[in-house]
Amino acid sequence: MGQMVKNLVHQQYRLAVLMSSGQGRESGEGSSRSVSAPADHQQPPQLSRYESQKRRDWNTFGQYLKNQRPPVAMSQCNYNHVLDFLRYLDQFGKTKVHLQGCVFFGQPEPPGPCACPLRQAWGSLDALIGRLRAAYEENGGLPETNPFASGAIRLYLRDVRGSQAKARGIPYKKKKKKRNQMKATDETTNFQMQSA
Ligand SMILES: [Zn+2]
User: Fold this and answer.
1) What is the pTM of this model?
2) Cα(163)–Cα(166) distance, rounded to whole angstroms?
3) Lesser CB count within 10 Å: N end or C end of the chain?
């Protein structure tokens, strides 16, 4: 059963990789830096893993908005853009989410392959939203207009969690943190927190 957390952690890692590579595609650090306005005070030389991931996520999201037709300014961004972004990320997902008709529906560890789609795991999305929500305000956004804090996002994540729990046979209520603490402290704290 530690498997589940391991999977989630793995997902997060994949997402991190995905995000950084998404950013790299667009040509370099300079361009991504222009996304966030206020030059943050004194960067410590070594960002924590959480901090650097948050920065990558923020840049990726900014890039995503820029790539819209027409481009969306951060100030115009609302929760619909965020929802679209989350759905867009699903195509890079690595988590098998069984469809209703699949014989493995509801089985955490299916004995064989199937044709069901790969998605972003709920835990990855939840952690991502937490980071983006923080980044938005750190980059000058007002809490009142924070699109990542919208109730619509919370509902969406709750739906994803519910449907993935059913499809994958995973009860998200059970926290498996203790057994995996050695490996995964960073990620598990990230993804566990906002869920209650
Ligand atoms: Zn399936």
Assistant:
1) 0.66
2) 5
3) C
| Residue 153 C-alpha from the chain's centroid | 12
Facing residues of 118 across strands? Answer: 96
| pLDDT, tens digit, 9 for 90 and up, residues 12-32 | 545 554 544 444 343 444 444
Q: Which of 74, 179, 98, 164 is nearest to 126 (CA)?
A: 164
- Counting Cα atoms < 13 Å in the Cβ hemisphere of 42 gives 1
Cβ atoms of 141 and 74 within 8 Å: the answer is yes
Q: What is d(CA 32, CA 62) in angstroms, rounded to the nearest whole number?
A: 8
State the alpha helices, DSSP H only, in 37-121. 49-67, 79-89
Q: What is the 67 CA–ligand 1 centroid distance (Å)?
A: 33
Using the mean position of ligand 1's atoms as its centre, give its distance from the Cα of residue 195 in Å: 26
